[in-house]
């Protein structure tokens, strides 16, 4: 069972329009509402693969109730923590050429009691999980050390934990030795404080984060590929993608693939690449099923192309 914790989940409402024009009245052709949040997406991907998953998340107001109903309908077991504020609603404006404009709400302010209840709910469920996954931004009321405390409690429960966040929250959590962290190239550069221009730079940066506590680093390098650096060494992989329809949730699908394949070694990296490639070929934030995967399009090697330029500059 894969347990996910999403401290700032959302309802994601998407409107399709002919063109975005500021200061005018626009009429949407179609609209849809999907469960949102990085941890929520991981649970959706695990459920789409036909595997058990539980999502721990704060739920408030009618928006929270709808989010729980949507997840249950997708086969996700919901362990909701009631909160006073309403679950946030994010709005996306989609244009025919693929341009997506997003408006992300801040989310509710969690009280000290709600924060503690969220931590304890996660700890209790972690004892029965193969992997615990904590993802995304922190809502108001949670400080940058909240993820560090979550990692510590998960380890005390005897569980492994993967962390997908960035900035001060990531740096603070490193001292508790998360089993896997999943930065993208930009987040990796931010964490080490210097730009990355090649795969070799990313390997060195991953090594720096391992020296600071992370047991393994699964780094997404955009179109360049993915990198796994752990105690067994370094491996690199890429996947052929014929057409990109949407990259929303692709990184979360990739993390789900990695963990459901064991969360360690080249085979797990290959599964991560297959899931991520399948996700970008699907519309919106749909998560891939086993029928969508193309493992033959994935290449994984321990002969890491250190001189290969990264796709896009990083700070």
Describe this structure in words.
- By secondary structure, the protein is of the alpha/beta class.
- The chain is 33% helix and 23% strand.
- The chain has nine helices and 14 strands.
- It has a six-stranded parallel β-sheet with strand order 5-4-1-8-9-10, sandwiched between helices. Strands 3-2-6-7 form a four-stranded mixed β-sheet.
- The two termini are 37 Å apart.
C-alpha end-to-end distance: 37 Å
Widest sheet: strand ordering:
5-4-1-8-9-10
What level of helicity do the residues show? 25-40%
* Low-pLDDT runs: none
Number of helices: 9
**β-sheet strand percentage:** 15-25%
Task: Give the overall shape.
Answer: globular
Write down how many β-strands occur, each being a DSSP E stretch of 2 or more residues.
14
Largest sheet: 6 strands, parallel
Structural class: alpha/beta
């Amino acid at each position: 069972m894969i347990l996910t914790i999403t401290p700032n989940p959302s309802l994601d409402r998407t409107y399709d329009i002919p063109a975005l024009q500021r200061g005018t009245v626009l009429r949407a052709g179609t609209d849809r509402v999907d469960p949102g949040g990085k941890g929520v997406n991981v649970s959706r991907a695990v459920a789409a693969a036909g595997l058990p998953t539980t999502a721990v998340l704060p739920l408030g107001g009618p928006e929270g109730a709808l989010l729980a109903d949507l997840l249950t309908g997708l086969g996700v077991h919901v362990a909701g923590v009631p909160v006073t504020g309403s679950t946030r609603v994010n709005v996306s404006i989609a244009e025919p050429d693929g341009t997506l404009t997003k408006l992300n709400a801040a989310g509710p302010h969690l009280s000290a009691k709600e924060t503690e209840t969220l931590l304890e709910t996660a700890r209790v469920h972690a004892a029965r999980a193969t992997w615990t996954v904590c993802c995304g931004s922190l809502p108001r009321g949670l400080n940058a050390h909240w993820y560090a405390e979550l990692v510590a409690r998960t380890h005390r429960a005897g569980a492994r934990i993967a962390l997908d966040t960035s900035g001060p929250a990531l740096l603070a959590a490193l001292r508790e030795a998360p089993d896997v962290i999943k930065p993208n190239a930009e987040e990796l550069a931010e964490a080490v404080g210097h730009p990355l221009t090649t795969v070799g730079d990313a390997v060195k940066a991953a090594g720096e984060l391992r020296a600071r506590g992370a047991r393994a680093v699964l780094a997404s390098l955009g179109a360049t590929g993915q990198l796994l650096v752990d105690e067994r060494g370094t491996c690199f992989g890429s996947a052929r993608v014929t057409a990109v329809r949407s990259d929303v949730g692709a990184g979360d699908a990739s993390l789900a693939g990695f963990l459901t394949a064991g969360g360690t070694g080249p085979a797990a990296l290959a599964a991560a690449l297959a899931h991520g490639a399948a996700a970008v070929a699907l519309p919106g934030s749909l998560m891939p099923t086993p029928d969508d995967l193309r493992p033959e399009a994935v290449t994984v090697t321990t002969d890491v192309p250190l001189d290969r330029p990264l796709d896009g500059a990083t700070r």
